Amino acid sequence: MHELAITQSVVDAIMERAAPARVNTVRLVIGRLSGVVPESVRFCFDLVTAGTPLAGAALTIDEPTGWARCRRCGAEFVADDLLVLCGCGCADVAVDGGDDLRIASVGLVPAAETS
Amino acid sequence: MCETCGCDDPTAPPRLTSFPADAGTEGRSGHEHRHEHPSAGAGAGAGAGAGARTLLLEQRVLAKNDELAGATRAWLTTRDVLAVNLMSSPGSGKTTLLERTARDLAGQWSLSVVEGDQESVRDAERIRAGGIPVVQINTGRGCHLDADMIDHALRALEPPRGSVVFVENVGNLVCPALFDLGEGARVVLTSVTEGEDKPLKYPHMFAHADLVLLTKCDLVPYLAVDVDRCIGQIHRVNPTADVLTLSALHLPGGTPGPPTETGLVAWYAWLRARRLGGDTRLRAGAAGGV
User: Fold this and answer.
1) B104 Cα to chain A: minimum distance (Å)
2) In this structure, are residues B166 and B86 in contact, taking their beta carbons and an 8 Å threshold?
3) Smaller CB count within 10 Å for chain A: N or C?
4) B158-184 pLDDT, tens digit each
5) A79 to chain B nearest CA, in Å?
6) Which band of pLDDT confidence, cut at 50, 70 and 90, is reported for residue B21?
7) Residue to test with chain A: of B61, B175, B233, most A Cβ within 10 A
8) Residue A58 forms contact with B (CB below 8 Å)
């Protein structure tokens, strides 16, 4: 399950950027064509954040729609998976969105609440 | 199990064992990996400083892995080393193909191997028996190799200039697809015994392959598998992938097969072309033979 390693990467990157603040919200973008299962990341998140400044943080995951572009006719269309056919019948399509896997933002806890 | 990363023990990082070409020496344990577990409570409540605010990151999750992979790729390129990332489900024949490839090419090319498995050094021992330098990475509970592991393995291997390094990834058709290792070629194996529909079931793995090898083709006469249909499924997911059919061991019928009749010659020709690819200098004789 690579989501465990993915979630660890998320937490490591946030701790690097947000330290020494505590983090109470995390917003991720996991596109539908990214190859990562959001539910698995949710499952791993509490495990991986335990004992870190992210412990207890609320996790929000945006799941942008996948888009594909036909290399033959240039049409762009919504793609739920990588096995798509263009309306022109061509299978030679390029992913053109929805393969994002990134940390959008984090919310930092006010100093007064971190005593 | 460590609650932080899922490994067996927080103090048990992935293990790296080197086997130099001169068989007989004990494998030596190499690196300390850089995976650090934050101590409980570290940083918590450590003066946030400012008031409540949102920190915009817009950072790719795998940025660190990809940066390291990019550095590895640049280093390999300057040394004229081709690294080939071999991926497949367990039992597709990666190690058998490497044993055979080493046997057929070792006299002509300088080869080395990085083996990735959750446990054991069995594959490394098989490769070492052929006289090829090999480093075994044991990932514990990890399901894939990443750029950091390869960075350490290459430091241990020190592949000579102009050589070929095969990286045998952990047998898994899902996770390794996501992690760039800095390789120069991505090769996915799928054996005829796995059926025709693996590309459709695991499209992420096949979508970014430079080459797909359909292995164990000597068994086709005994199976209800349609090779053309399987190749069609591969191209459905990845229209530009090269596809080769081969058997690393036998001809149909079970007799040991020479490279010319088992599809292996095409595999070696593909590797040769890949070694020369992107290099405008004509290096006559650099990849001759077989």
Assistant:
1) 35
2) yes
3) C
4) 999 999 999 999 999 999 999 999 999
5) 13
6) confident
7) B61
8) no
H or E segment and range at residue B256: none
**Does residue A73 register a pLDDT over 60?**
yes
Residue B278, pLDDT > 60, answer no
Both structure tokens of A108: 């930092």
Q: State the angle between helix axes of B63-78 and A2-18 in degrees (0 to 180), rounded to the nearest 10.
A: 100
The one-letter amino acid at A51: G
CB pairs under 8 A between A and B: 149
**Residues of A whose CB is below 8 A from B235:** 91
**Cβ neighbours, 10 Å, residue B136:** 26
Identify the pLDDT of residue B289.
39
Q: Tell whether B224 is within 8 A of chain A (Cβ).
A: no
Q: Residue A114 — pLDDT band, cuts 50, 70, 90?
A: low
Boundaries of every domain in chain B: 63-275
Amino acid of residue B23: A
Identify each DSSP E strand in chain B by its residue range.
15-19, 28-29, 53-60, 82-87, 111-117, 134-138, 164-168, 185-191, 211-215, 242-245
Q: What is the ipTM of this complex?
A: 0.87
In CATH terms, the fold of domain A2-108 is hypothetical protein PF0899 fold (3.30.2320)
At B211, is the secondary structure helix, strand, or coil? strand
Question: What are the domain boundaries of chain A?
Answer: 2-108
Contacts of A2 (CB under 8 A, 6+ apart): A36, B143, B144, B174, B175, B178, B179
Predicted local confidence at residue B8, as pLDDT = 46
Average pLDDT score over chain B: 84
Q: Which CATH number fits domain B63-275: 3.40.50.150, 3.40.50.300, 3.40.50.10170, 3.30.70.1170?
A: 3.40.50.300
Q: How many CB atoms lie within 10 A of CB B132?
A: 24
The predicted-structure confidence for B110-131, as pLDDT tens digits, reads as follows 999 999 999 999 999 999 999 9
Q: What's the number of CA atoms in the CB half-sphere (13 Å) around residue B238?
A: 23
Q: What is the mean pLDDT of residues A13-41?
A: 95
Helix extents (H) in chain B: 63-78, 94-105, 122-129, 147-157, 198-201, 203-207, 227-237, 259-262, 264-276
